[in-house]
Amino acid sequence: RDVPEEYPTEAVYFGDAGILISGLLEEMTSRAGLQRKKWLGQAGAARDRQRSEPSHPLISALSRNLPGDAITVADVHTLGYRMQARFPINQPRSFLYSAVYVNLGYGLPPALGAKIAFPDRAVVAVCGDGGFSMTGTELATAAQLGLDVKIIVTNDGGYSSIRPGQQKLSGGKTLGADLKNPDFMMLAKAYG
Predict the structure, then answer these.
(1) Per-residue pLDDT at 1
(2) Are 96 and 114 in contact (CB under 8 A)?
(3) Which residues have a Cβ under 8 Å from the Cβ of 50 and sit 6 or more positions away?
(4) pTM for the full model?
(5) Nearest Cα to 109, choosing from 68, 151, 80, 146?
(6) Residue 52: what are its φ and ψ, rounded to 5°?
């Protein structure tokens, strides 16, 4: 049977399925151990590089001024990536970040949910302008439910974590990485 081009065949095995699977599992376990060591070394080096960068002034200001039980939500943006590695966490479940799924626009909705769940705790959403533009209409929900959530929007006029990759791959060109933003303060006032 033909195998699609995007899945080239590297090996073909014929034989007893039980014996073949046992052998494959043994080989995979051996390779996985070597790959895990390699990956842990790379991850440790990346973590050390990230930690050696100076902290962003906003991260420092938030860590100094928020109460110890505050809940901080970081959207997926350049500052959010830095917060993932650099933001001090004082207690479990006090820093929310969409690390695995990288959902742009994540910041505000879980901040509102956190405020509903913990109405007596300070809640701060740190969003990029692109992510906030995707879910910023949730300000209506905050106003309707009277949720006191602080929202910080880093407004750099575009998708700052996407733009450099595009520029690198296309000789400095970008496509859809720049934004025409509203006046975010006026938008907040419009929702009360």
Answers:
(1) 53
(2) yes
(3) 82, 85, 86
(4) 0.72
(5) 151
(6) -80, -15
